């Protein structure tokens, strides 16, 4: 047993010591030697994070008010809460960790898009995955939504590395923050979801009763 613990300890220690090297090595492979058209496409995808993250909750609200659906309004507030809290957590961690951007530290990393401030975690990735996770939970019955949104969020994260503005660990950090924040928000909103579903169930039972039983 002691031998196994010793091996695990050495593995974790070696991984932690080598991780910065692998982090930079992977970033270098993803960042360098791409065609201009590829980098242009990555710029479009990376900028889509801000627009899609704002547009999706607005569409939810529009549909909710158009159809007078209170349940969709709850879902829209859930998505907005996830996005706002995830963005605040990302911004706070950036200022606590204060990790320099890759091109500030390594001259061979090419900066191919706008980007400033601190590096860890990736704000674009955090926001994209917060929207993808929250929408997948809120509209879980629409099975196409999860793969589409998670695929989009993954490409947004990839674009941040391709364009040289974030390390792979920044992307991983953004995904973890988004997952944690969405999970906590779901716990908070779960009572609201359940209360609405219970009320609708009671309403449907009463509505389906024979006329002489309704009062």
Set down the secondary structure blueprint.
Blueprint: H1 2-31, H2 36-67, H3 70-97, H4 102-105, H5 123-138, H6 145-162, H7 168-208
Can you characterise this structure?
By secondary structure, the protein is an all-alpha fold. The protein has one domain. It has seven helices and no strands. Helix 2 runs parallel beside helix 5. The longest helix has 41 residues. The protein is elongated, with a radius of gyration of 22 Å. The C terminus is likely disordered. Pfam families: PAP2. Keywords: Membrane, Transmembrane, Transmembrane helix. This is Undecaprenyl-diphosphatase.
Q: What is the H-and-E element order?
A: HHHHHHH
The total tally of domains equals 1
- Mean of the pLDDT scores? 81
How would you describe the oligomerization state of the chains in this entry? single chain
Largest sheet: none
Count the beta strands.
0
Low-pLDDT ranges: 11-17, 201-215
What attributes characterize this protein structure?
215 residues; mainly alpha; 7 helices
Question: Can you describe this structure in just a few lines?
Answer:
By secondary structure, this protein is mainly α.
């Amino acid at each position: 047993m002691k031998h196994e613990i010793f091996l695990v300890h050495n593995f974790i220690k070696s991984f932690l010591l080598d991780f910065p090297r692998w982090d930079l090595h992977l970033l270098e492979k993803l960042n360098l030697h791409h065609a201009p058209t590829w980098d242009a496409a990555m710029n479009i995808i990376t900028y889509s994070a801000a627009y899609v993250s704002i547009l999706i909750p607005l569409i939810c609200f529009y549909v909710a008010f158009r159809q007078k659906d209170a349940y969709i309004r709850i879902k829209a507030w859930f998505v907005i809460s996830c996005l706002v809290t995830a963005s605040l957590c990302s911004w706070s961690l950036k200022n606590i960790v204060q990790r320099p951007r890759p091109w500030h530290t390594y001259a061979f990393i090419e900066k191919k898009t706008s980007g400033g401030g601190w590096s860890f975690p990736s704000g674009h990735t955090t926001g994209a995955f917060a929207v993808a996770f929250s929408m997948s939970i809120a509209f879980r019955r629409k099975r196409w939504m999860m793969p589409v949104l998670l695929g989009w969020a993954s490409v947004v994260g990839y674009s941040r590395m391709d364009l040289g503005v974030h390390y792979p660990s920044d992307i991983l950090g953004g995904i973890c923050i988004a997952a944690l924040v969405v999970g906590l928000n779901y716990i908070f909103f779960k009572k609201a979801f359940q209360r609405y579903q219970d009320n609708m169930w009671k309403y449907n039972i009463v509505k389906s009763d024979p006329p002489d039983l309704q009062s």
